[in-house]
Amino acid sequence: MSSSQKNLKLTRRQYFFIIIQTQIGVGILALPFDLHTAAKQDGWISLIIAWMLLNIILVFLWMLAKKYPEKDYFKIQEFVLTRWVGKTVSALYVIYFSSVGILILLLYSRMISLWVLPNTPYWVLSFMMITISVYIVCCDLITIARIYTMFSALLIFLASLIIYSVKDSKLMYLLPIASNGWGGIITGVDKGIISFLGFLVTLVIYSKVEGSPKDKLKTILYAQFTVFLFYLCIVLVTFTFFSTKEMALVSEPVLYMLKSYQFPIVARIDLFFISIWMVFVATTLSSFLYMAGLGLRRMVNTQQNKWVVFSVGCLFFISSLFIGFDLTKLDRFQTYVVHGGYIFAVGIPLLILLISLFRKNRNKEKTT
Amino acid sequence: MKRLCLIFLVSMLTLTGCWDQRQFKNIKLALSIGVDQGSNGEIVKTVSVPTVSGGGDGGQINETIQTLSTDGHTMLEARDKIDRMLAHSFNPSKMEVVILGEDIAKKDIYPILDNYYRNPNSNLNAHLAIAEGEAKDVLSFKGGGEARISEYLKGILDGAAAASRTTGENLQMICAELVEDGEDFTVPLIKLNEDDNTIKFNGLGLMSGDRYSGVKLSAEQAPLLMLMMGNKGRVAQLTKKVNEHQKEEILDYITVEVMKYNKDLKIHPSEEEVRVDIVLDLDVRVIEYPHDHLVSEKVIDDLNGKLKETLTTEAEEIFSVLQEGNSDVFAIGRKIQAYHPKVWEKLDWEEMYPEVQFNPEINVTIQQHGIVN
């Protein structure tokens, strides 16, 4: 790590792609199904509401980050919540990020086992995935950002494969709108917000990005909008491709939809899609690995990036082995982690923001 | 060097034993599968499995086709039994055609197809067809100029879709219509003709809910239905009678090809009655009409009028057949549910559908008449 490399800040474009790559991940295959179970054919409305709410949350997160432009999120915690409380909260965050990482590994391996490699044992699938992520995260953030930017070109493939299926969609299946009342749509909002949960990354790496706060906010909102558009596209296409009743039968509608097509060279487009999707899973996993590693480094005050990442990676892998393909355990774990997301990605940051407002006032009083 | 060694070591550990390899030499691909109703409620499954041998060193490639048939309680039990008769294991992942016998198609067909929907390595891009008679007989058919029965069947079905006789829907497309209320579909019918040793496309079977209604549309009626549904294939050709008692019978008829079409379907639902107006505008090209004289506007107008009359009558017949089979292939029910949800809640669609009033209107405009007048 040369010092010139270390002090290099991320450009806003890189920031944009990091946000996108962190958010688009393992969830895209199941997102339409989750929205559909909650809100039937009105799931897309839930998604729009979720996105609107999210913009408000993001502005709050940005306000917090803007107050301490030189500190990353873990340093802010230490500063605002005093040293030891801050460290405890950071420790909780490390646990949270690790749990998300483990969940991604589990869901990814389960999907691959279900769709492509039914006989391959769990540890092989997750081991290969975690190896890639550890390899990516061992570098500096700037390298990670460059890799993410490069990989984002693959998004075009994903999007065009999905848009191809529009030719067989029937708009009729979206109607009637709100026939089951607004209760379902509101429950769907929960699922919608969950699909965006990677947004915490905006706060964590905010201080490492160059540019004025206003520009950064724009980047954050643009990135969010891109992710939202991509999600909406997936949801609308699958909802119109599958009939309302059929959606209840297929839990990975995106893949299922592509499975029914055949191109001259690629006979199984779903497999083609999965192999691109794996890249997005790897980047999401890497982001969480990075954040968990960063938290741990801040906690113990070390600059040893490689070893920290390596040990966190091992932790991911070994802990995930305890669950493996076990469906009931996985479901329970998923509920905990996903709902923990509200506390860690919304609750605690807002709390810190409140306390920081209070502290600032006190500081001002002191200085005056 | 150290790094290189590490890469080799890791590759050796991770890339060798593959749990999920499926080698072509170890499997037999079943390209077409037939399902019939057995006499005691079980299902009879027939598969056609090609074996390719020889080749290499410029040798002759021999292909032999095995047609195997067995009974079982479920599709996969039957597959398991067929597996025991084969030298290698049986694999349906390149399946092209699924043929249901007439009797089994009259029961709920979802349970038969379930295993294809459930397992990720099946080919959902396969055709579904119903055999008039037994699927087993169709699959055991030899001849037809094609080496493989699967290829022959697939050719027939692809051809029918290209000529706008079928929707060309694959297993996946059908699934939505199978499970959704107020929406039905058509399945191509295949008939084995033992006298002249051919298999032919013999019209469309009308599905009602999840089963075959037993009512069918003839192959001649199919293109008009497809046009009204907005499902034109590569070409759509209609041969209609427009004259009476000419010198030769051939002079009574005209054959036209549809160049452009535009359909407009309007539903006027209420709780007491449902009225459906379908207006189909066809721009056609005359491709056979031995009378000639296709220059004068009067003759052309006259023909347009006659075609309109014949086609409208035919469309009315088609709708009465659809209602007889209680087969809502236009998804009228689903559309009412989508656009008029309040009316839908009060309707008993099964009861209502045969009472729906269909008002078709087919407008024909001759735009071209080939290179002679």
TrEMBL record, chain A:
BP term (GO), one: spore germination
Keyword Coiled coil in annotation: no
InterPro entries named among the record's database cross-references: Spore_GerAB
Record bears the keyword Iron-sulfur: no
Pfam families tied to this protein: Spore_permease
Superkingdom assignment: Bacteria
Bilayer topology term: Multi-pass membrane protein
Major subcellular site: membrane
Localisation: Membrane
Membrane-traversing stretches: 15-33, 45-64, 84-108, 120-138, 145-165, 185-207, 219-242, 271-295, 307-325, 337-358
Keywords, alphabetical: Germination, Membrane, Transmembrane, Transmembrane helix, Transport
Gene Ontology cellular-component annotations: membrane
UniProt cross-references to NCBIfam families, sorted A to Z: 2A0309
Similarity section: Belongs to the amino acid-polyamine-organocation (APC) superfamily. Spore germination protein (SGP) (TC 2.A.3.9) family.
Protein name, UniProt field: Germination protein KB
From TrEMBL, chain B:
Localization of this protein: Membrane
Coiled coil feature spans: none
Boundaries of every Spore germination protein N-terminal domain copy: 20-192
The keyword Signal appears for this protein: yes
Domain Spore germination GerAC-like C-terminal: 202-370
Major location category of this protein: membrane
Topology of this chain in the membrane: Lipid-anchor
Biological process terms in GO annotation: spore germination
UniProt keyword terms in alphabetical order: Germination, Lipoprotein, Membrane, Palmitate, Signal
GO CC terms, sorted: membrane
Pfam family, one: Spore_GerAC
NCBIfam families: spore_ger_x_C
Family recorded in the similarity comment: Belongs to the GerABKC lipoprotein family.
Protein name: Germination protein KC
